[in-house]
Amino acid sequence: MVAQDSATVAVRNVLARLGKHRGLAEGADRLRTTQVDIAPLLELPVVEDRARRDELPPNEVVLSVVREFARRLAPTDRLIADAALALGLLRENPPVGIDFDRLYAADLGARREYLTQQWLPLHESLGATAIPTRPTVRTLRATPERRAFTALAALLAAGIEVEPEDPAPRSDSASTTLGTVTVIGAAVIDHTYRTDHIPTADGRPALGRFKEQIGGKGLNRAVAVARLGFQVRLIAAVGDDPAGRRILRYLRKEGVDTELVKIVPGESTPVAAVIMAGNGTSAVIGNADDAVRIDREDLNAPAARRAITEADAVLMTFEQPMTIIEHTLEILRSVPDGPWLLVQPTPSISFPQYLYEYFGRIDYLIGSEQELRALLSKSRTKSDDSGNLPDIPEQLLTLGIETVCTVQGFECTVHSTDKNVIDIRRFAAAQLDESLGARAAFMAALVHRLITRDRRADREAFRWATAAMVATQSFGDIPGAMPDTGRIDRIARSPMDDDSGG
């Protein structure tokens, strides 16, 4: 039974009224001329997100969104919703002998009649194994049709993306011509709360909306790199549950190799809570259960070891246990002239000093001021007697790191062992203060420049990586906001608020 909250009921009623006569076959034109109050449909977060992403009015994306979610329905509900709303889903893979002029006729009654007549072959065309008894037109328009509209409305109201079983890879993400990148991190389900402000214990309650999405810092970076044209392998772990299978399908659709994603039997895929305020600032509640994770044995498997040592670049976060972080660095340190290594030290770890002996292997350390500060002892980050704060990047350089990138608020400051400091200021295109996917896009864009140019990053490379951060401005799903090269190029050509850095 589908839970029927107020949003589900409102959207269901809109769909039912739109189904009369021509349905949604005319798309935006139908919505512009209808006398039905379609506000509940236009104000859905999933519609608003798609409109913002595609830079279109909400009424122009409704049909594509409804079609997308209708494809996720069970076969019977999908057929009923498809015919009742004249969505045209079956045109994409036409069954033999079906008359689309009748199935998607202008009159709802005619569509219902043809659906009942072709009940069995239509179900068989979808591969349905349990086919309900064929209804009459009279019985179809009662419980079955109402149930289908309710199921579709519930998916739309929740905004939960459920990937198809065998999606085709993105045509722009499966290229292997640029090189190979291995990402070590996590893949989780994000429970995202979009609020008017970040709530505090002693402050006013936050008002917002909830959405479930695919996420994880490792997954975000893998998708970001794949969209820039690289062959990507993700080393992570998921549970043996529907959420884990959903993550694997999503990664494959994005062109990410999932051979090294471990499936942990009998465990649920981790969930993280993400709170996003209207200005782009955010807070995250991670998962405390470490039952779903990779171990040293996984890293020592021949395929994983080759993925780490033979890649053109390795991207790593601190989402995995300390033993895995340490062992990965140990493996990379043993490889002469090995891959580029880019590390973001998030989430923070309790005893970072255990990793100091490996810091000389890190080519680029990338993080916010807070993330970088957490790598040093408290005594090293306190102000001196004159009130001056220590130079944290310089202290990290003394530990052997080649380049430290302080990335925050769509800006980047780079310190390197050659004493050169590069400041990349905010692009005028940045309307938010921050976005959750910014540093993932920065790492992906930077590794693009490192591999394709086969040399250390210069000012232009950091400028391009900073433009990639700006391209992630979105309140939609985080990996979905990762840009391709064209979008980064357009922002990189735009003016900056202040580009006076040295």
UniProtKB/TrEMBL annotation:
Keywords: Kinase, Transferase. Transmembrane segments: none annotated. One of its GO terms (molecular function) is kinase activity. Residues 486-496 have a biased composition (Basic and acidic residues). Pfam families: PfkB. This is PfkB family carbohydrate kinase. It comes from the Bacteria. Residues 181-479 form the Carbohydrate kinase PfkB domain. Residues 481-502 are annotated as: Disordered. Belongs to the carbohydrate kinase PfkB family. Gene3D superfamilies: 3.40.1190.20. It comes from Nocardia aurea. InterPro entries: Carboh/pur_kinase_PfkB_CS, PfkB_dom, Ribo/fructo_kinase, Ribokinase-like.
